[in-house]
Request: fold
Amino acid sequence: MRVDDQSSAHRAPDRSSAPATGHATAVAHPNIALVKYWGKRDERLVVPRTDSLSMTLDVFPTTTRVHLAAAAGPDTVMLDGAPAAGQARRRVVAFLELVRERAGSARAAVVTSENTVPTGAGLASSASGFAALAVAAATAYGLDLDATALSRLARRGSGSASRSLFAGFAQWHAGPRAASDAEADLGSYAEQVPVGALDPALVIAVVNAGPKAVSSRAAMRRTVETSPLYEPWTRSSADDLVDMRAALVRGDLEAVGEIAERNALGMHATMLAARPAVRYLAPATLSVLDAVLHLRQGGVAAYATMDAGPNVKVLCRRADAERVADAVRNAAPDAAVHTAGPGPAARLLDGDGR
Ligand code: DP6
Reply:
């Protein structure tokens, strides 16, 4: 397992095997996209329509342990202390099937996953969850994958998980249009993005920690299939990606924030125009957006982004984070407010699985 090796982006998928350790524990952090992933080109392979770019957070880690049974049988999946059911369980079991197929193993697994982020609240618990599961399951089943190959694997669980393999900022490539499944899979991976002098914080306003009414998976499918604004957004998002990478290298927080905010608002516009409309933004969301505008008018660099939920993440300088958090609390008194910085790569925990 070499989760810090980023050198093999263009190698064939790594199917070489290491001895199955039989058990491993991994930790991964959520990420927040500054250029969003919204829409798939291939649903089964989880290949996106557009590239996306995110910041991995230093808060809300997911810790996942995978322990193999001696033989085949039903998998056991425990999420936050309770047996997973329905769709959540099916997604984990389908992911384990993929790992078993690659490892040539039939052994069932016991998966125990603990989130510290409110599940389903638009705060990307599926990103940290499948990134941690990819690292732990690959080790337990004896797949010797570098970080690039792990990002491809994590992608199959949840697209945004591909970016949580990496520390700091990461870009997930959609990849070129491919002639085969193998080529499509190979072309779509994440990698770390270089940044200049930047000391960013994300002030996270959790205005509603409950599960969302429409899953991001269903909402993005509906958007791709029915929204007349979707295609134009994919084109402007490609430009945003180029501008974002340049702004990050310059360490230009104002530009990073402006691009992130316009990209997120554009993504929400695509879903508002879907038929029927998908609207995640709540009254408290708009109150926080007003507060962000007010901060900017007062000379504080603060920019908002929202995912598939009503919560708002405000990008600012770390030095301004306290002031931004106060403004957010005033605007949404019922919101829980957290401050995050750039976080670490997904990794195995010592003493297990090595
Ligand atoms: C709005 O990665 O949760 O957060 O691939 O279907 O599991 P699936 O979707 P998911 O979608 C995340 C969408 C987003 C934007 C982003 O993180 O880029």
Residues 33, 36-38, 46, 52, 124, 126, 158-160, 216-217, 307-308 surround DP6 (CB under 6 Å). The chain has two domains: 8-196, 200-340. Residues 29 and 73 are 30 Å apart (CA to CA). The first helix runs from residue 86 to 103.
